[in-house]
Amino acid sequence: MKKYLFPLFILLSVNVLAGTLPDQPAKKQRFKVMTYNIHHCNPPSAGDKIDVEAIAKVINAEKPDFVALQEVDVNTERSGKGKNQAQQLAALTGMKFYFSKAIDHQGGDYGVAVLTKFPIVDSAKFALPIRPELKEEDRAIAAVTVKLPDNRKLIFASTHLGLKEPNRLLQAETIMKHFGETELPMILGGDFNATPESPVIAYFDKYFTRSCTDCKPTIPVEAPKKTIDFIMHKQGSKLKSSNTKVIDEQYASDHLPVTAEFTLD
Fold first, then answer.
1. What's the predicted TM-score (pTM) here?
2. Which residues contact 221 (CB under 8 A, 6 or more apart)?
3. Is the pLDDT of residue 99 over 70?
4. Tell me: the pLDDT tens digits for 115-159?
5. DSSP letter at 119?
6. Using CA atoms, how far apart are residues 42 and 101, in angstroms rounded to an integer?
7. Where are the alpha helices (DSSP H) in 41-184?
8. SS3 of 185, please?
9. Where are the domains of the chain?
10. Which CATH class name applies to 26-264?
């Protein structure tokens, strides 16, 4: 039996040097997610003032690892030519960013973005369609693939759906067309412009698990009455969510931010 000990020692030594052991289970990952419609960093009570620092303060107070942002200005007249709000918020929070344009606005771009503390290894942006007979503002999605500390990958995305239910359903179907077959764990945050009992949320519920089913209202910021901002994760992965909170922050935006904690086994 002794003749087998030396090869086994060599095998274990190689694995230790490589930082792994045979069949070593992945360590549970923990992170915090926020979704926030930031109203182009314009506090509703402050006239035309743009206050990027106020939004950053809200984010920094919660210390999320991912943030889904909606209503983000890039290079617009109202928010400052040459100013990229996604880039500004990334700098103020120490995070990385990715922006997806939805529409042209005042000489610049307006859309959605993501922030993350983890390295971005891939990204995707695309427009979400509207029905020809139901014209309204174009919508978009921004998605990144990040590398977690244990080298596993995860997709994180931000979106802002339309005001009309048939458009929202078409947009939801488009999101599933792009991400329905992915085997990576995925988290989606956004302003869905839809309440929990709506058809579009029922559609998402077939493929995603919302971080809460009895979430508190998110608009208006004073005496909120409607729940339209959600965080959800795609079913079929080892993601689990808990401790969803609606943050009572009434100055920085016209929406309340939402946070949720996640584990990935």
1. 0.90
2. 44, 249, 250, 253, 254, 255, 256
3. yes
4. 999 999 999 999 999 999 999 999 999 999 999 999 999 999 999
5. P
6. 18
7. 52-62, 85-93, 165-179
8. coil
9. 26-264
10. alpha beta
